[in-house]
Design a protein that fits this description.
Oligomer: single chain
Family: Belongs to the UPF0386 family.
Radius of gyration: 13 Å
CATH class: Mainly Alpha
Structural class: alpha+beta
Distance between the termini: 30 Å
Strand order of the largest sheet: 1-2-3
Number of helices: 3
Protein name: UPF0386 protein FF098_009775
Organism: Aquisalinus luteolus
Order of helices and strands: HEEEHEEH
Number of domains: 1
Largest sheet: 3 strands, antiparallel
Helix content: 25-40%
Shape: globular
CATH topology: Arc Repressor Mutant, subunit A
Amino acid sequence: MNISKAEQRTLHVLARGGCIAVEKDDKGRIIKVNCVTPEGWSLADCTLALFKKLKKRRFIASYDSRPYTITYDGRKAVRGQLDNRG
């Protein structure tokens, strides 16, 4: 499956336990996204367009009005990467 580097990076952060917090306008439309790593840092690669692509491909989902996390399909699509965690 063809996944861009930015998509891989975002999915890898989500697979490690990160989440995507969204900000909505008065009509309930998503206007801003913020991908947060498990360490609390913000990922700059995660844009609204990238978020929409991942959501359309069903790699991320939100359950019970919680922040968006990775789905099973998203875990299958992401390639394994080495972590620098000790």
